[in-house]
Structure formats: structure tokens, C-alpha cells
């Protein structure tokens, strides 16, 4: 649907967004809790040799596998529509929960390892946000991509 892009400066995969009003695709850094980006995205086409691999579920480095979904995941985020149609990278610990179809264990892991504050209201808010996306991921019928 959207061309995959990465940031030329930090080699992180960028998320496409498209406001309803304009219909113009823009790219933004991932909204990682506790992570403040020190620069604006500099979108360039993905270069696999430079792309920084991170787990799309918990943000751990060095993902070991990837999952694709049968259906695209569409979420409304204020005035933006976010479409998740690219494969989801997963570290081995998160991959176990996806393979076992254990969304709540996957959500628990993401909430516990993502950087940020540890007070109860912040953790509840983070869990609510993560749960909405991860439950849509499981509803979209994920399957593991096999290397050939």
C-alpha cells in the first residue's frame, strides 16, 4: 500500500501516516514510549544493509523472525489513519507468544520492557494503547514468514 521507508539519519524503519484532510502520505519515527527522537525523519527507500532491526512488539534489537498478516491492520489515530501492512519483525521471546497465540503474554512483555515511567497510571495507559494494536494484529491472522 505504502512504499516502505527508513530514516536516512538513524536507519530506523518509518511509519507511514495519511491525514484524512490532505490524503498525503508522510512518514514518522515509531512512537516508542520513553524514546524522544532528536531529529525529524529523513525518509529514504529501505536499504536492507543499513536498516536497524528492532522487534515491532517490544523494540528489542536483533529480531529473529517476521510475521505477516492475512489482512492489513488499519487504526485511526486522531486525524491520521495508520495502515500496518508490512511484515512485523519479532525477537525470539515475542515470537514465542505470537506462535502460541498468546496476546496477553505478548502485551505483558511489551509493557514490561519498553522504556518509560513505571508508575501505575502510565503503565495502564501504555497497556491500553499496546493492547488495541496487538489485538488487531492477532485478529488479522498472522503467520510466520519462512526463510527460503
Structure explained in plain terms:
With 148 residues, the chain is an alpha+beta fold. The protein is built from three helices and nine strands; from the N terminus they run ββββββββαααβ. The protein starts with a strand and ends with a strand. The mean pLDDT is 85.
List keywords for this structure.
single chain; alpha+beta; 3-stranded antiparallel sheet; 9 strands; 26% helix
Set down the secondary structure blueprint.
Blueprint: E1 5-7, E2 15-19, E3 26-28, E4 43-45, E5 65-69, E6 73-77, E7 80-84, E8 88-90, H1 92-99, H2 103-113, H3 120-139, E9 142-144
Antiparallel strand pairs: 1-4, 2-3, 2-7, 5-8, 5-9, 6-7
Helix pairs in contact: 2-3
Side by side, the strands of the main sheet go 3-2-7-6
Determine the number of helices (DSSP H or I, runs of at least 4 residues): 3
Overall geometry comes to globular
Largest sheet: 4 strands, antiparallel
**What number is the mean pLDDT?**
85
Strand content: 15-25%
Amino acid at each position: 500500500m505504502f512504499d516502505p521507508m527508513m530514516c536516512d539519519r538513524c536507519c530506523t524503519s518509518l511509519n507511514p501516516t495519511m491525514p484524512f484532510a490532505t490524503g498525503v502520505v508522510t512518514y514518522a519515527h515509531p512512537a516508542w514510549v520513553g524514546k524522544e527522537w532528536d531529529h525529524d525523519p529523513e525518509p529514504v527507500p529501505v536499504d536492507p544493509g543499513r536498516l536497524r532491526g528492532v522487534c515491532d512488539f517490544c523494540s528489542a534489537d536483533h529480531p529473529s523472525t517476521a510475521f505477516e498478516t492475512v489482512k492489513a491492520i488499519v487504526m485511526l489515530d486522531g486525524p491520521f489513519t495508520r495502515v500496518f501492512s508490512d511484515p512485523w519483525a519479532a525477537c525470539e521471546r515475542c515470537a514465542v507468544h505470537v506462535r502460541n497465540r498468546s496476546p496477553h503474554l505478548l502485551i505483558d512483555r511489551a509493557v514490561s520492557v519498553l522504556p518509560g515511567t513505571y508508575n501505575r497510571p502510565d503503565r495502564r495507559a501504555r497497556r491500553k494503547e499496546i493492547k488495541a494494536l496487538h489485538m488487531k494484529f492477532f485478529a488479522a491472522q498472522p503467520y510466520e514468514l519462512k526463510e527460503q
